């Protein structure tokens, strides 16, 4: 498996982002969904990565700088054909290494509350994320929960 910067012109990448957006909008009302679209993922504050096995896209994930000390994980998605193969673990590990290398002291994320998000929440907790307060521009709601990882003591 190899991780590389996401190429938004690649049809597999475009398809996976569409799958991600569709999944988010199926499980969360649109006004409470914070999934990033193509143009948002291409902002300067965001680094978007893809995980490949040979010529098959397995998954994607992004890290967004909120400020010089705080980053947010975004757009974590495993392709439906590659679930339960360690894709999300590889991506999360890679994104956290980027966060540490970038000297972020804290990494946060927003995710949903219903059972569709259980596997992701389990993974985040396995990596040491703890549930906490809303951050950045998010607000508490019945659809969102927030997790944080303090990197300053790792």
Automatic annotation (TrEMBL):
Residues 6-152 form the N-acetyltransferase domain. Its EC number is 2.3.1.-. One of its GO terms (molecular function) is acyltransferase activity, transferring groups other than amino-acyl groups. Keywords: Acyltransferase, Transferase. InterPro entries: Acyl_CoA_acyltransferase, Bact_Acetyltransf, GNAT_dom. This is Acetyltransferase, GNAT family. It comes from Acinetobacter junii SH205.
